[in-house]
């Protein structure tokens, strides 16, 4: 049973697909594709801290943008980086060989929908084929909210005026935890939506303004029509929980300050 997903944009809602070939024993040796990316790095960190041995794929080994991976706890012994492109089947086979599980997280951040289709479709098929070749027992594939959204248009908004749309927010640390949960739970199967808080843009801005009054915020909002609601009920039934929105907002602002994005 394989699921192939097309994705069109980034939004903080993560559908994930769990493809279980069969389950047996301890699956402590896993591969993470796109290990140097935003979510991939958190997944690697979470796996290492749970005593997994990780094969991480990157496209440019040696590049300074992956330096943070080698600084993770247990990385010196338990993390090995492999050069791999999802469009290059052979490179994936080398990275996945010897692993009992795969977290397929790699995906380009596109400027057009065309840029994402080939890596999403052909890349995912290559990953799944390499998993069969290496007798991998379980595969967790991360996708984008656009894969389940009825209208995956790029958001076109300015800074002064914002559409008062529903924003779906989930903390990346909770996503990493969700991925490990669906990997480890034998009962996990099929597709999971991973989103935590659903809040109107205006309410989110009001909340942020009350917590961080020193920053600039949109001045007006335009109303939109009815929107689709989605939920992570299935994931929660599996045992997933998430942190409060306020904690995510405070930690996000802190990390933006640390990175020099905010004063
Ligand atoms: N961030 C979000 O808010 C968000 C929300 C919903 C869903 N998601 C989903 O989460 C996944 C990861 O997103 P992200 O935010 O972590 O993105 P990211 O930080 O841009 O990381 C993407 C990773 O994919 C790798 N990659 C891109 N094209 C590749 C290719 N052809 N072959 C191999 N690796 C390739 C990149 O590798 P290199 O390091 O080699 O460049 C990079 O490490 C995506 O499926 C995305 O749709 C993210």
UniProtKB/TrEMBL annotation:
Location of the NAD-dependent epimerase/dehydratase domain: 30-149
Keywords: NADP, Oxidoreductase
A Gene Ontology molecular function term of the record: oxidoreductase activity, acting on the CH-OH group of donors, NAD or NADP as acceptor
Domain of life of the native organism: Eukaryota
Any single Pfam family the record assigns to this protein: Epimerase
UniProt key word Glycoprotein: no
Protein name according to UniProt: NAD-dependent epimerase/dehydratase domain-containing protein
Protein species of origin: Gossypium raimondii (Peruvian cotton)
